[in-house]
Input
Amino acid sequence: MQWLPAILILPYFIILLRTYKNLLHPVNYHVSSDPEIFVSVVVACRNEEKRLPALLESLALQNYPKSLFEVIIIDDNSSDKTSEITRLSYGIENIYTINNIGKGKKLALRTGISAAQGNLIITTDADCMMGKNWIKTIASYYETYKPDLIICPVKIKPSAGFLGKFSELEFMSLQGITAGTALSGEAIMCNGANLAFTRQAYLSHSKNMHYEINSGDDIFLLHSLKKEPQSKISWLESQDALVDTESPSTLKMFLKQRSRWISKGKAYNDIQTIILGIVTFVAILLQVSYMIAAVIAPSFIGVFLTLLILKSIPDFLILLNTTARYGNKKLMKWFLASQIIYPFYVLSVVFYSLIFREKWRINSPSPKETLSS
Output
């Protein structure tokens, strides 16, 4: 009888193995000709005076005609010198600074995209850095395949200590699932730190962004687009299209960031995302429950080890593939320790999000007001 609940691990095992299968043969995209489309790079930032210069320097070094892209910085009510930094061009020919008409990243992006001149929008964050062929690769991919939304790869910068390595490994797993589901035509995740889409696609779906939630500017756009059968969503497999972003430097920042990610889950209406979320949470509860049971009663050790193996096999395969594609296989030495700690980490984040709920900043204008401004 003690084995019966363990059957609930099978949906997780099957879904993650399917995701891994999609990662086996991704087609690495290479630029075959110089794109000619005008691109708008949109960055929403708040109190980023220290990190913004590195981003602007990366954008200034792009191997793309300076006359064919613009950089729009939206200052989201900063209290530091962000607005002063954004007035410097750093050698970028077309750079503009706009004040957010409301508060929050979603309205900041809406403000910037509404003012953008390009049909192709690329969003990134102030703490990101990218290679010189970043814009060129994304623009070329768009001109070749004409997708409505392009999900691009993101990697967090290496940091010391177990927390840093755990963050990297967890982020790699999210990137693996992001790529695997997108390659199957069933994308469930994306990252606004490196996301491209048409201006029209965004404006057509921005009403579905859930402005009452202080997170999810990327995911809600993806899920809204998925509801249109004719929409085209692609994963761009290319090292040249990758951006590096910073990881949280402290445990508190880490938990706060992850709790924001979890907070938007209550508004999800994409069935594939909901199913994966449920089966993942069930797998985690099973692992924790049987681990505790095995400590109390040794007869449960066999069940616990079986659950751990069944959960670890697809996790290991996805991470092995993703770390290899990102050139960081050495991270796998942290896999076993992370696998044991991961269930407790997830429960801690859920508990943290319930206790320390981040309050939504009020008095923000409606999306219609932002668009008409």
The beta strands are 39-45, 69-75, 95-99, 120-124, 129-130, 149-151, 154-156, 195-198, 233-235, 243-245.
